[in-house]
């Protein structure tokens, strides 16, 4: 009972969060909290098998939900709060309340008394009791359900299956093509030089410099070239560096820093 | 299952919980050192050898350093989930150890209390381990999502797909163990392996489990969620300091967890190896001796993990997924059907041990022979000409069957 009163507020808050969360991923996370709390309640009520299965099945299911959210809704988009159908909120509230009252009344009338027979059901251990029911009394329903699920999975596979229109390039094919291109046109078979890293500016809009100082245009992403965002003016750059070095040298000379005199490294005073 | 589980005094439970926690932390520090030393030896290096005897204190120093680093929360992170994710990854990793049996019933020193060397047991203990470890995946996926970085997101997505697929194969490899032991409780499975460790009769399951456990823990060669060469650091790219340390801890604890589970399910749990177990009427299976065998066996698996990391290059993602779904799962399904048949035939006395052994040897030889048959190379398809989508003036996709004949 303690567990119930500890978990019930958590579950209610998480369930409300599921409805009111702006971000779809937060909603999915709240759903996970509800499901795991439910699993713990199962464990407390003497159904350890259901506890484990609930978590295993629902973690997989909620993970799928995450993926659907990310793929369909986008990484960080939020729900629109504007009503698209007029009067929808009011109607949903009324119908939801009616449904809730019905459920509470129905369940309240059927299970008002104390539940009996748990000891008998779990006599040989909980998994045995469950297995006897699943593979004895309800075996047909169990098998039909699994047939239904397999059909659904097959259906999803058929729907998602796409005919391949172009031939498949394997890794070996691509390597062979690269070598052929190298033999025919001399195109370098390895990966291209990365931009920026070897230049003075460590950025993607700066082409890599060849050993002689000329920029390598192919190291830039084509989209950056397309947008006209390539950084240019490297000749000035070199001049600037030379100038900078010269001024530093002059300043040093003016300060008389030629080995000793200032507090340089290891200089005698 | 012992009557003691769930009926012990509070101080015994608290003591065992604290001990498990401490042992796991220390074992993690040891494993980090062990991995670095072994991998170093495999790469002709020395590895950490300065701090403490044999460099044993190196990971402790690294841990302290990691904890004292600046804790950066990136600007585009979803704060709540970002903080929650490392916690979600770590706690389930420890929870799984509640049902791992370390040894038989022993007397706690300086008292008269007798207790099994296992925190508790459930009739569905192995499923419980599967359940809590699958909660740990949330930590990884949420970390990937909450970081607000593409690398992290890709790592998180890869991880969720990977762990779910390999969990299927892992769960299927448990089924045959359940069928042999007739129980899902860890202590009873160890009990059932008194005469014969299950990796002998259930060798295919053992192999499948060993492959799946590497996939499940995101370790090389299946470390695609954090593939350093492709995704920087994967799901933990944006994490630093103690939060990163938690992920690190979770990964190593998970590694030990799956190793301990492999030990429990296939290698006789805490039982002494054949030969030692027979000495002096099983003296080495009593008292605190089993701790030695248990940790020795887990260390064996850790060594395999390190060995794999030192040997194999990372797999390509699509190959990895098709290996899991198209090979591991069908093979384990077929194996489960075979095990069910064998069990039934044996219980009906229609199959004696000798026939079974000969059949097993024949099957093993057949499998070995298939390794020596050279793979048939697929006929090289005639290179089709480049499809010109704009041939008729409009961009048109090629027809499925007429591609080659028309163009």
Taken in chain order, the helices and strands of chain B follow as HHHEEHHHHHHHHHH
Indicate the radius of gyration of chain B in whole angstroms. 25 Å
Query: What is the N-to-C order of secondary-structure elements of chain A (H for helix, E for strand)?
Result: HHHHHHHHEEHH
Number of strands of chain A: 2
Amino- and carboxy-terminal Cα gap of chain B: 71 Å
CATH homologous superfamily classification of the domain at 1-75 in chain A: NADH-ubiquinone/plastoquinone oxidoreductase chain 6, subunit NuoJ
Content of β-strand of chain B: under 5%
Q: What is the number of helical segments of chain B per DSSP (H or I, 4+ residues)?
A: 13
Outline of chain B: globular
Strand order of the largest sheet of chain B: 1-2
Structural class by helix and strand composition of chain A: mainly alpha
So how many helices of chain A?
10
List the helices and strands and how they pair.
The complex is a heterodimer of chains A (269) and B (407).
Chain A: H1 2-20, H2 24-44, H3 48-73, H4 88-110, H5 118-121, H6 126-137, H7 139-160, H8 171-185, E1 208-209, E2 215-216, H9 222-226, H10 234-254
Antiparallel strand pairs in A: 1-2
Chain B: H1 10-42, H2 58-68, H3 79-95, E1 103-107, E2 114-117, H4 125-146, H5 150-181, H6 186-192, H7 203-216, H8 228-231, H9 241-266, H10 289-311, H11 317-347, H12 353-372, H13 403-406
Antiparallel strand pairs in B: 1-2
Helix pairs in contact in B: 1-2, 1-9, 1-10, 2-9, 3-4, 3-9, 4-5, 4-9, 5-7, 5-11, 7-9, 7-11, 9-10
Report on this model:
The complex is a heterodimer of chains A (269) and B (407). With 269 residues, chain A is mostly helical. Among the domains of chain A are: 1-75, NADH-ubiquinone/plastoquinone oxidoreductase chain 6, subunit NuoJ (Four Helix Bundle (Hemerythrin (Met), subunit A), Up-down Bundle), CATH 1.20.120.1200; 194-254, no CATH class. In chain A, 62% of the residues lie in helices and 1% in strands. Chain A has helices at residues 2-20, 24-44, 48-73, 88-110, 118-121, 126-137, 139-160, 171-185, 222-226, 234-254; strands spanning 208-209, 215-216. In chain A, strands 1-2 form a two-stranded antiparallel ribbon. In chain A, a hairpin with a 5-residue loop joins strand 1 and strand 2. In chain A, helix 1 packs antiparallel against helix 2 (24-44) and helix 2 (24-44) runs antiparallel to helix 3. Chain A is elongated. Chain A starts with a helix and ends in a 15-residue tail after the last helix. With 407 residues, chain B is mostly helical. Chain B has a domain at 69-348. Chain B has 13 helices and 2 strands. Chain B has a two-stranded antiparallel ribbon. In chain B, strand 1 and strand 2 (114-117) form a beta hairpin. The longest helix of chain B has 33 residues, at 10-42. The model of chain B has no long low-confidence stretch (mean pLDDT 84). The chains are: A mainly alpha (269), B mainly alpha (407). Chains A and B meet through helix 2 and helix 3 of A and helix 4 and helix 5 of B.
């Amino acid at each position: 009972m303690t567990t119930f009163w500890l978990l019930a507020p958590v579950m209610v808050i998480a369930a409300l969060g599921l409805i009111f969360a702006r971000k779809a991923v937060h909603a999915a996370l709240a759903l996970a909290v509800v499901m795991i709390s439910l699993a713990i309640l199962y464990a407390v009520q003497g159904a350890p098998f259901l506890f484990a299965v609930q978590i295993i099945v629902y973690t997989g299911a909620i993970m799928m939900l995450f993926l659907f959210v990310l793929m369909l809704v986008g990484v960080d988009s939020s729900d629109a709060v504007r009503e698209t159908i007029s009067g929808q909120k009011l109607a949903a509230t009324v119908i939801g309340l009616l449904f809730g009252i019905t459920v509470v009344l129905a369940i309240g009338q059927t299970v008002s008394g104390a539940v009996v027979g748990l000891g008998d059901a779990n006599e040989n251990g909980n998994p045995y009791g469950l297995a006897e029911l699943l593979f004895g009394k309800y075996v047909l329903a169990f098998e039909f359900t699994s047939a239904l699920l397999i059909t659904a999975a097959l259906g999803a596979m058929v729907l998602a299956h796409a005919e391949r229109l172009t031939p498949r390039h394997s890794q070996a094919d691509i390597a062979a093509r690269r070598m052929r291109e190298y033999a025919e046109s001399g195109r370098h078979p390895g990966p291209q030089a990365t931009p920026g890293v070897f230049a003075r500016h460590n950025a993607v809009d700066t082409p890599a410099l060849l050993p002689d100082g000329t920029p390598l245009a192919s190291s830039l992403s084509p989209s950056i070239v397309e947008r006209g965002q390539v950084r240019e003016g490297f000749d000035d750059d070199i001049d600037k560096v030379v100038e900078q070095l010269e001024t530093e040298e002059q300043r040093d000379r003016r300060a008389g820093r030629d080995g000793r005199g200032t507090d340089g490294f290891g200089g005698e005073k | 299952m012992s009557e003691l589980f769930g009926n012990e005094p509070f101080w015994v439970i608290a003591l065992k919980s604290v001990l498990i926690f401490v042992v796991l932390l220390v074992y993690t520090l040891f494993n980090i050192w062990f991995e670095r030393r072994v991998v170093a030896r495999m790469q002709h290096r020395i590895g950490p050898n300065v701090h403490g005897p044999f460099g044993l204190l190196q990971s402790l120093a690294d841990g302290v350093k990691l904890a004292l680093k600046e804790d950066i929360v990136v600007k585009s992170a979803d704060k709540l989930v970002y903080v929650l994710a490392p916690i979600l990854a770590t706690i389930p990793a420890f929870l799984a150890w509640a049902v791992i049996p370390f040894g038989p019933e022993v007397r706690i020193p300086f008292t008269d209390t007798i207790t099994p060397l296992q925190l508790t047991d459930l009739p569905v203990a192995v499923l419980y381990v599967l359940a809590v470890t699958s909660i740990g995946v949330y930590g990884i996926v949420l970390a990937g999502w909450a970081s607000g970085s593409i690398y992290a997101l890709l790592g998180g997505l890869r991880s969720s797909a990977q762990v779910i697929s390999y969990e299927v194969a892992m769960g299927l490899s448990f089924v045959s163990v359940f069928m042999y032991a007739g129980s899902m409780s860890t202590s009873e499975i160890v009990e059932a392996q008194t005469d014969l460790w299950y990796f002998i009769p259930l060798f295919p399951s053992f192999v499948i489990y060993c492959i799946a456990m590497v996939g499940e823990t995101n370790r090389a060669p299946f470390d695609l969620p954090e593939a350093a060469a492709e995704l920087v650091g994967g799901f933990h790219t944006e994490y630093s300091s103690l939060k990163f340390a938690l992920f690190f801890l979770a990964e190593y604890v998970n590694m030990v967890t799956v190793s301990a589970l492999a030990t429990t399910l296939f290698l006789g749990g805490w039982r002494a190896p054949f030969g030692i177990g027979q000495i002096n009427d099983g003296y080495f299976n009593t008292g605190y001796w089993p701790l030695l065998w248990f940790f020795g066996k887990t260390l064996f698996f850790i060594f395999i993990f390190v060995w794999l990391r030192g040997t194999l290059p990372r797999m390509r993602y699509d190959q990895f997924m098709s290996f899991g779904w198209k090979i591991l799962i069908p093979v384990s399904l077929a194996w489960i059907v075979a095990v069910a048949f064998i069990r039934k035939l044996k219980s009906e006395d229609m199959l004696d041990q000798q026939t079974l052994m000969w059949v097993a040897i024949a099957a093993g030889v057949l499998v070995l022979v298939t390794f020596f048959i050279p793979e048939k190379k697929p006929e090289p398809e005639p290179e089709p000409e480049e499809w010109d989508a704009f041939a008729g003036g409009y961009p048109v996709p090629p027809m499925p069957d007429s591609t080659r004949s028309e163009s």
